[in-house]
Design goal:
The protein is 56% helix and 19% strand. The protein has 13 helices and twelve strands. It has helices spanning 2-14, 16-54, 83-90, 127-130, 143-148, 157-164, 209-217, 235-250, 265-308, 310-318, 323-360, 373-399, 403-410; strands at 59-63, 65-68, 72-78, 95-111, 114-123, 135-138, 152-155, 173-176, 179-187, 204-208, 225-229, 260-264. Helix 1 packs across helix 11 (323-360) and helix 9 packs across helix 11 (323-360). The longest helix has 44 residues, at 265-308. The model has no long low-confidence stretch (mean pLDDT 85).
Length: 411
């Protein structure tokens, strides 16, 4: 092995300029593959974070109307969901929790000398969790707030800022349509989102749905219900169970979209995954083609070198060098050139990833590339495979050199 390494390095030094020019294609292909793999991983992570802002596992239910055949909307009967329906949904297999998401619209809210329009929702103690709201200050709504119908309110980050500025909001009083509420919590900011289900999450407020019924809706029905499946994979089965349950309770077919519409976050996730998979395939194919072109360039230069070294190879075989030794030398030279230039390409790609991530930072609407160690290992394995593939033809040609050729030339 020491002799093989010494011979390989001597050959590379003798043709260093030629190898340097040829290996640029491999370097560029490895850099592209490294950076674009990181970019694809960054897209995955970015969209996952953005979709999780709506709710990591969330399904929105929208009750509609049940129509009669041959009558249409004239005989339509509204589907009215109630508290018992929420409890029934929460008890189903595959459902982690269910909660009301009662839409109250934009309400005039006054506090600390400011008057603002704030989007208000009637909620339970589980609504914030299903919608992926984290409480940054104070607390969320409690079961006691719901049971007693207390005038408590949880503000989104931007809503609290609009009403109180930089001052603390927890413990302060706000008036919603002239009705006093105590601020018990402020949610952590979510920032901009790719998808909104209504107004921006940072600009809304939650009050107990029982309180909303007392002061605003004056009815027991709930306009919108949300629930979280146990896992994302079970979300579609959970939707079918929920529709079957509510269909039995309210007298409509489980597949009647007019009676009960829904939005499953998994649908958006599957769509994004499909787009990202296509994008990853395109980026990887582009990088691999570039790397393949670089490998072909290395193979061509090795073929030219084998032709130039015909005398040397023939003489070595004439004095006892085996075909295996000749093959190993050409293979070692080719793989070493490919791996070294590819390693430099990986370093260039890593520098590009680092610079790009630093410039983008924590931007909500842009995805910073993310480089995983496993991706580097994959790129390195591809480099080795490219080197081996590029070496086979030159090595086979070197093995076929007839020692008599060298003897005739030197004689």
């Amino acid at each position: 092995m020491r002799d093989l390494l010494h011979t390989t390095l001597r050959s590379l030094r003798a043709h260093s300029f030629r190898f340097a020019l040829t290996s640029l294609g491999v370097l560029w292909g490895a850099a592209m593959l490294t950076y674009l793999s990181a970019a694809a991983d960054g897209y995955d992570a970015h969209f996952a974070r953005q979709l999780d802002k709506i709710g990591q596992r969330i399904v929105f239910l929208f009750p509609g109307v049940v129509t009669k055949a041959h009558i249409g909307q004239r005989g339509a009967r509204p589907v009215e969901l109630e508290e018992e329906d929420i409890a029934g949904i929460g008890a189903l297999h595959g459902v982690e929790r269910a909660a009301p998401n009662q839409w109250l619209g934009a309400r005039v809210v006054r506090a600390a000398g400011h008057t603002k329009l704030i989007w208000v929702f009637g909620a339970s103690e589980d609504t914030a969790a299903v919608r992926n709201f984290a409480i940054e200050q104070g607390r969320g709504l409690s079961r006691r707030d719901i049971d007693l119908g207390l005038n408590t309110i949880v503000l989104g980050a931007r809503a609290a800022e609009r009403l109180f500025g930089a001052a603390a909001a927890v413990g302060r009083r706000v008036h919603v349509e002239g009705i006093p509420f105590e601020v018990v919590g402020v949610a952590a900011p979510k920032g901009d989102q790719l998808i909104y289900m209504g107004p921006r999450d940072d600009e809304i407020a939650f009050i107990p749905y029982t309180t909303a019924r007392t002061w605003f809706t004056r009815r027991d029905t709930i306009d919108q219900v949300i629930f979280s499946p146990v896992t994302r994979e079970e979300s579609w089965d959970a939707v079918e169970r929920v529709r079957a349950l509510l269909g039995r309770r309210h007298g409509f077919a489980a597949n009647d979209d007019a009676a009960l519409g829904y939005f499953n976050i998994q649908e958006a996730i599957d769509m994004v995954r499909g787009l990202l998979l296509a994008l990853r395939a395109f980026l990887s194919a582009t990088s691999l083609i570039t790397l393949g072109v670089g490998g072909v360039g290395v193979m061509n230069i090795m073929l030219a070198m084998v032709s130039e070294r015909t005398r040397e190879i023939g003489l070595r075989k004439a004095i006892g060098a085996s075909n295996r030794a000749i093959f190993a030398e050409i293979l070692a030279e080719t793989v070493l050139v490919t791996v070294v230039s590819g390693a430099l390409g990986i370093a260039v790609g890593w520098l590009g990833v680092t610079a790009s991530a630093a410039s983008i930072g924590e931007s909500t609407m842009q995805s910073a590339p993310v480089l995983h160690g496993s991706r580097i290992a994959v790129v390195f394995a591809i480099l080795v495979a490219t080197g081996v593939a590029s070496a086979i033809l030159p090595a086979l040609r070197a093995m076929r050199v007839d020692p008599a050729v060298a003897l005739r030339v030197t004689g």
